[in-house]
Amino acid sequence: MLPRGRPRALGAATLLLLLLLLLVGFFLFGRDPEYGLRAAATLDADLYGSRNRSAADLQPLLPPKCELLHVAIVCAGYNSSREVVTLVKSLLFYRKNPIHLHLVTDAVARNILETLFRTWMVPAVVIRFYDAEELKPLISWIPNKHYSGLYGLMKLVLPSILPLSLAQVIVLDTDVTFSSDIAELWALFAQFSDKQVVGLVENQSEWYLGNLWRNHRPWPAVGRGFNTGVILLWLDRLRQTDWELLWKLIAKRELLTLTATSLADQDVFNAVIKEHPELVHPLPCVWNVQLSDHTLAERCYLGAADLKVIHWNSPKKLRVKNKHAEFFRTLHLTFLGYDGKLLRRELLGCPSQLPPGAEQLQQALAQLDEDEPCFEFRQQQLSVYRVHIAFLPHQPPPPRPHDVTLVAQLSMDRLQMLEALCRHWPGPMSLALYLTDAEAQQFLHFVETSPVLSARKDVAYHIVYREGLLYPVNQLRNVALAQALTPYVFLSDIDFLPAYSLYDYLRASIEQLELGSQRKAALVVPAFETLHYRFSFPSSKAELLALLDAGSLFTFRYHEWPQGHAPTDYARWREAKAPYHVQWAADYEPYVVVPRDCPRYDPRFVGFGWNKVAHIIELDAQEYELLVLPEAYSIHLPHAPSLDISRFRSSPTYRDCLQTLKEEFHQDLSRRYGAAALKYLTALQQSQSGA
Amino acid sequence: MLPRGRPRALGAATLLLLLLLLLVGFFLFGRDPEYGLRAAATLDADLYGSRNRSAADLQPLLPPKCELLHVAIVCAGYNSSREVVTLVKSLLFYRKNPIHLHLVTDAVARNILETLFRTWMVPAVVIRFYDAEELKPLISWIPNKHYSGLYGLMKLVLPSILPLSLAQVIVLDTDVTFSSDIAELWALFAQFSDKQVVGLVENQSEWYLGNLWRNHRPWPAVGRGFNTGVILLWLDRLRQTDWELLWKLIAKRELLTLTATSLADQDVFNAVIKEHPELVHPLPCVWNVQLSDHTLAERCYLGAADLKVIHWNSPKKLRVKNKHAEFFRTLHLTFLGYDGKLLRRELLGCPSQLPPGAEQLQQALAQLDEDEPCFEFRQQQLSVYRVHIAFLPHQPPPPRPHDVTLVAQLSMDRLQMLEALCRHWPGPMSLALYLTDAEAQQFLHFVETSPVLSARKDVAYHIVYREGLLYPVNQLRNVALAQALTPYVFLSDIDFLPAYSLYDYLRASIEQLELGSQRKAALVVPAFETLHYRFSFPSSKAELLALLDAGSLFTFRYHEWPQGHAPTDYARWREAKAPYHVQWAADYEPYVVVPRDCPRYDPRFVGFGWNKVAHIIELDAQEYELLVLPEAYSIHLPHAPSLDISRFRSSPTYRDCLQTLKEEFHQDLSRRYGAAALKYLTALQQSQSGA
């Protein structure tokens, strides 16, 4: 900050310092006149001109405020895709510059991260993907024993695949966490001598000293070598020095005597540096505090005024034993649980760089009237939810013409249903979970500690991150539906347990009924409910009917909302031996099996009420036959009414808004289906309002 | 950072810069040899010595790493006590120095914040309280129209009440949020000239220009005046300049012509500065970015490289209209929802400064065996939960000899019970809520938007912040119990709705039965359950019995766990006209009314199972009579089994651990009650294991 008051030794000294800063400023940022001017501005006393900028003047090495910084990350598979999100959160939390992420991904990571970043909508972040498959030939000839597999090695070929226009890039492993502004790291490029091409932090483990065990023969390195979890790559210099040729030669030669790389790219980087030490610019250790075992990191961080980047470079990750592990865990957990939507903030004072769609969204939101009674609903309908598909590893089902995926959505308070559901449905599932970032971590732990769940590889979990107060039930269903990979889907709810035989029975029925693109049908799975937490699930239709007669089972919502399922005609179902047609009627909301390309749920219905009813109307309007299956059933287990149902029951506004939504829905129907949609409107007018 | 490589214009300049920094370093921190040495160390090339410190060298004005920084905050009432937590979180998140908080509080805030900080257990944070009551006489003579009431004015008298040993202090309003390290703010003291005693940021609103409306007559100020949301007070200089006399004189004089202060202390500070401009050291505007209306803050933050402190100085707070409001909201929400337990981290490289109890806790945790099957339970039992009592404003009940408080605990998935509970229980309640920091904010919104809940001032909500995976049911009950303020408590569960008449009936019964300290009795409230979400609650015992006979009501857990309530003897209750005695039996867990000083729940029972059973045993062991009330009843509403019940049912380890807990509990019983406790052990051995 600028000194004020009368000149004193101190004042004089800092004034001198200031002048020098200007000098340096011009050296460093001659190319950026605006910056030079800014420094100059610090001379006049204008409160808003100088003083608030003097903070920047104290760090003359930082890149200009709005300069774009480039970061490259290699990311493959489900787990790394989860890991990288935490890295990116920490990076974005402290950043003040626009960021360009260059992501080298396999198909899995790309699919996940494309969806994630598209829905995340963070301003001043540019994403570009590079296909890891294309890189494999370039490095697959190098034998490698590291847990990162081939992908670690890909860091070696970045200079040849990143755009030629790109002069400098920061390369990061997915297992690092920032606790400072990446611009400070970028600033270190300015300190490279003209020979230096790569910036690295010394390795903090004993590995390259080769004394870890008898006959431990690491790759060659200078001293304890360098760690490649955080790399400053001066790309255009590397291209000039023919880097590609250089590292290949050295790697090939080492491989004559060494069987394989143990630490992937890191071994090669160190071998090259051993031979050409002039190429490396050593970075301060705080920029890569390595928490692997046998680490000397403590020597670094205890002395440090400030930690910049933490590197969980041990297969044990967060469980690594370290005297201060708890301290570092808190840094990491901070961003594991950090609400990613809070990073959707523009950079003040930089030209606006909104992601695709953000501008229209802002305008739409701006047009809403905060005092309108249904404002909350309108706002929720417009929300763009951050979506992390395939949050956990899973195997897509093999293509089978009649296969069915169970589609459902849930939030934290229904996790306990998952194990039972897995027991009842042996087939593929696509489940959308509405969670906070912190809850997503609890969910992860829940699955990992459940033998039943972790054994299932055909269940895909898609996280939709919470936003707003109304439950976006239909957006959730649409996410799960869009991710189903079989030709047919069973649109169920999380509180239902299907008959043990249902999965097989459905596939058989689809085959027999010759459902295909030519025949548009929705197969109805009759719904029942028990009012007891514990009950023995009927193993056959006969058993079910017996329980029904005994009064320990009911048709679903028989007491509260009979019209929701009456059209299924339970009396007929009792006797039925073959599938039978039923007609649509007002408020009908059966659970159905339909082709994957069926209409989506109407996202306008948020919170409680009418969300399924509208979907069935849509099916009927598109002339799907409604066929009830004689041997199919599914049973609802008891639970407390949701917060939304309670609000619906207690708040008249809530009911009025739902009514408005219904009317708007019907207007759209008539617009799209014309006279054919009239019957729905009439039905609505006849039936009482209220869901 | 230090320049490396061969000298170039740039290198030379920065080297020169470094030398100058050293020079300045010695001027500033001559008093601190360690710092001088550190600066010197940057000359040698030791990787761990210098480079990681160079970051600090770039900001030579920062106080030494482990220096204690002092902060004073005036805080009164329930809402400010909530607000100040967010401020403190943001402060601690970025701080790297030990912090001493000087809190001027009323009785309410002190009670809340003492509990909070004791249970928060943040290392390197010292708390000291000052009684606002004692300060009132010093400033109550000043008429004041500001929303902060008298408390704002208390900032004026801090120099006279803070310890004489305290030379400098940063004074903060409760409605500011840090987005940087407070040490940078502290560093600005070094820039005061020797006349300057108070550091302030210019006021960013038009207020003091007096042009906001016709006849707008603000207090005198230089230009647009200064804002007192963030103050650097040079205390010993203020004491020397007889500050107390000075501001009083000027305030008194102004009050001859002005009716009252509109902005409390801020008016007085500005009036003093108007007369003695030499006393103020203007601070960079980024240290108090004011988001009130008519603000010029934008001129500040758009130019700024970096924001330091945001000030929500408008009664509208987060709802203030501002082009960039969304940006600032995210900064604020970051800490509203931030998990406070992540701030329980020591300062690396500073002498350990653990809060009371933390060391024993660490040792206890260190002694646990991570591979022991019940490790998770042991860990959970040791957890110290952050507790924020009286999270919302409430009025303690007037002292009445036979009054009863309903005591219960819940988590987010039971919020929807609260409204019904309020309708059924018109008396005082003490409820513990197990929530994350983010959920606590949702809960706040839920209450504020519920007419039923916001109308009730006799319900105290106590937040216990989530930690670990097992539900600490008994710790929660103990928190709610400890905060009950009536002589009697009704120990209930959140899923139960009491008879509408129960509150009055209980108070009458307590009076008739002459329960007092001389008579140790537990009044049993018979428990029933319905299996329907919606049912009409019986308005009398007769109605209840009718529903029971009709099979639409059951005695509680009749199907799953009859022994839990069998000893209540429902058959006898049917006929009973007067209270009757019952005997304890194995697994008995009735809902009871007891004196507030009853035994606490055993905190070892975490998760599901046996938590109430153990408490009833404790009552029996202490020879409480068990009296069933003939007209009392309460009814359980259906809900899905909790995650813990599910885990209990699915995991054998879970059951085994519960069994172990039971055995340890009985060992303690025999230790405390000797032979008298034998009957419980025998009972346990007879009854099947499993809750």
TrEMBL record, chains A, B:
Entry membrane topology: Single-pass type II membrane protein
Its BP terms in the Gene Ontology are: protein O-linked glycosylation via mannose
Q: Where is it predominantly found?
A: Golgi
Q: Does the keyword Signal apply?
A: no
Q: Which reaction does it catalyse?
A: 3-O-[beta-D-GlcA-(1->3)-beta-D-Xyl-(1->4)-Rib-ol-P-Rib-ol-P-3-beta-D-GalNAc-(1->3)-beta-D-GlcNAc-(1->4)-(O-6-P-alpha-D-Man)]-Thr-[protein] + UDP-alpha-D-xylose = 3-O-[alpha-D-Xyl-(1->3)-beta-D-GlcA-(1->4)-beta-D-Xyl-(1->4)-Rib-ol-P-Rib-ol-P-3-beta-D-GalNAc-(1->3)-beta-D-GlcNAc-(1->4)-(O-6-P-alpha-D-Man)]-Thr-[protein] + UDP + H(+); 3-O-{beta-D-GlcA-(1->[3)-alpha-D-Xyl-(1->3)-beta-D-GlcA-(1->](n)-4)-beta-D-Xyl-(1->4)-Rib-ol-P-Rib-ol-P-3-beta-D-GalNAc-(1->3)-beta-D-GlcNAc-(1->4)-O-6-P-alpha-D-Man}-L-Thr-[protein] + UDP-alpha-D-xylose = 3-O-{(1->[3)-alpha-D-Xyl-(1->3)-beta-D-GlcA-(1->](n+1)-4)-beta-D-Xyl-(1->4)-Rib-ol-P-Rib-ol-P-3-beta-D-GalNAc-(1->3)-beta-D-GlcNAc-(1->4)-O-6-P-alpha-D-Man}-L-Thr-[protein] + UDP + H(+); 3-O-{(1->[3)-alpha-D-Xyl-(1->3)-beta-D-GlcA-(1->](n)-4)-beta-D-Xyl-(1->4)-Rib-ol-P-Rib-ol-P-3-beta-D-GalNAc-(1->3)-beta-D-GlcNAc-(1->4)-O-6-P-alpha-D-Man}-L-Thr-[protein] + UDP-alpha-D-glucuronate = 3-O-{beta-D-GlcA-(1->[3)-alpha-D-Xyl-(1->3)-beta-D-GlcA-(1->](n)-4)-beta-D-Xyl-(1->4)-Rib-ol-P-Rib-ol-P-3-beta-D-GalNAc-(1->3)-beta-D-GlcNAc-(1->4)-O-6-P-alpha-D-Man}-L-Thr-[protein] + UDP + H(+)
- Cofactor(s) for this protein? Mn(2+)
Q: Where in the cell?
A: Golgi apparatus membrane
* GO CC terms, sorted: Golgi membrane
> Under which pathway is this protein filed?
Protein modification; protein glycosylation
**Superkingdom per UniProt:** Eukaryota
InterPro entries the UniProt entry points to: Glyco_trans_8, Nucleotide-diphossugar_trans, Xyl/GlcA_transferase
- Protein name listed in UniProt: LARGE xylosyl- and glucuronyltransferase 2 isoform X1
